[in-house]
Amino acid sequence: MKQNHSRTLGLLLVGTLCVAVPSRSAFAQAASARLSIQLDKPLHPVSPMLYGLMTEEINYSYDGGVYAEMVRNRTFQDHGFGGLAHWNLDNKGDARGTIVYDGTEGPSAALPGSMLFEISKADASNLAGVRNEGYWGMALQPDTTYKGSLYAKADSDDFGPLVVSLVNDNTGAELATASISKTATTWKRYEFTLKTGKISPSSTNHLLISASHSGKLWLNLISLFPPTYKNRDNGNRPDIMELLAGMHPKFLRLPGGNYLEGDQIDERFDWKTNIGPLVDRPTHRGPWNYQSSDGMGLLEFLEWTEDLKIEPVLAVFAGYALKGDHIHPGPALAPYVEDALDEIEFVAGDTSTKWGSVRAKLGHPAAFPLHYVEVGNEDWFDRSGSYEGRYAQFYKAIKAKYPKLEIIATAPLKHMKPDVLDDHYYKRADEFFSFVNHYDSADRNGPKIFIGEWATREGAPTTNLGAALGDAAWMTAMERNSDLIIMASYAPLFVNVNPGGMQWESDLIGYDAARAYGSPGYYAQCLFSEDLGTSVPTSSITNAGDRLFYSVTNDAAKGLVYLKLVNAASHVQTIDVSLSGAGSVAHSASLVTLSGKTTAETNSISDPRRIVPVKSSIQAGDTFSHTMPPYSIQVIVVEAK
Ligand code: AHR
Q1: Which residues line ligand 1 (CB under 6 A)?
Q2: What ranges make up the beta strands (E) of 328-385?
Q3: 207/83 Cα distance (integer angstroms)
Q4: Which end of the chain is less crowded, N or C, counting CB atoms within 10 A of the terminal residue's CB?
Q5: Can you identify the CATH homologous superfamily of domain 79-225?
């Protein structure tokens, strides 16, 4: 070790990793902790479903987020500007055209209105136009094909052509153009493709629809998609999906959160209104104060799980809305229970069932794997005391038809034991540090625990290194208690970092139209879920300060031990590790480190990889001494057979 007695940083060589750490003169070094691991004394298996995902429509998670649609307010259901928010006139030269929402003309019963574009003057060199600004811009890449479609109806049969183009906001350059030769006098769907050439990537672009003909034109469901993850129609953004794949999740809890419930009962996630063609989806207002396009409907959620090779944890609406309305258990609740049974059948029924065959007609004959159904969300907020009765009614009906499903309760019950209880924790890092023993002595005869929402809330829009330390400390506790805690999912997962994009501070993954990045906490989760054993062996630690946390799991079949260490202190921490009960222990081990200089240090859209895991190796063996940098999360993988 090279020592420097000034108040500058010293250098500590940890294996092949060169980590900058404060010199001893700057911070007192804690005495060594002693960690003893007995591999021949397994305590309990690790839940194979431990780490998963939870999302909902918050912070522009789907619209303007993972759902790749580029046109904002494509069906004119958003509030503001009489339904025409994010649309503007763009008449060139002498052209004259106006736009207004016309509630009497629409392409479907679900979309009974449309945008009326009334053109009083236009010709080939004076185009009347209307443009969409996208979700804080439209990200364009060179040599890329964008697939578009729109519904239109004209007031005369010689209306045309319609020119659709992608235009740079700053230069006016047309980056891709397509033309729809004629629009009929009845509602019809038109498809177009926009292909860029050798352009520079940018997101300062808009979609422009122009006409050279005077008359009336009604437009609706104007949609444009970039290439999507696994080339799904109506699919997801590849960059965000790849970040999710990097978390090695096992499930997706869907569709919320508050978003499941809605502020009012008629604003719940009403799954039957968001399956099938987009034109048949009326859209709905979510509880986070914006309209959901419902492009991310139930089948899209399920295909998302399929693309990540994970399973859905399906939350069903349970008769309680956020602002306090509830349905009494009994006959009034029965239609909602039926709806949940239908929903389960849509997810997991085979094609001989009514809803399984609907799913097949929508293009997905194969049933999705389903083991967990959650009844409601955070029903401890229901002061009417109706939850126990509501849960029991859902439980009885679901178990009668699907005895193997595990039914998750969202609030403690007095008179029955649910299969699983969903606990939520939002805390500061320090609160998590003193909470890590919460489940150590919890009743093992009670319900299994699902931590369906948890997060260390420090930093915005995405969380900082201090939060990652809180998260990692909490994950050590969840792993240690993974006989009881069978699943856990962080929330909220997503935030659009543009102004107005965030309704909830402290999120895990941030993005704008073109870029996406993970917070330090994102990387902590990747590390913890990637290196997870199948069993928790007996272990004990002495002399550890109150800012040192660890978890050890092992996989006997692979002969690997996964040691997770969290040093949340501002000084280095040495740990003397002893591994017993294995035939042989390798002399070197892999090490991954996530660390930073202060707890406020963070990643951002403009500095996305400031704090990322760094791989190296260290000396190992039956006993070894390891020194952790300040503010660090480390995973050591040792071969022990
Ligand atoms: O994650 C944000 C919100 O927190 C969820 O919608 C809700 O379930 C919880 O209160």
Answers
A1: 56, 58, 256-258, 377-378, 453, 491-492, 504
A2: 372-375
A3: 18
A4: N
A5: Galactose-binding domain-like (2.60.120.260)
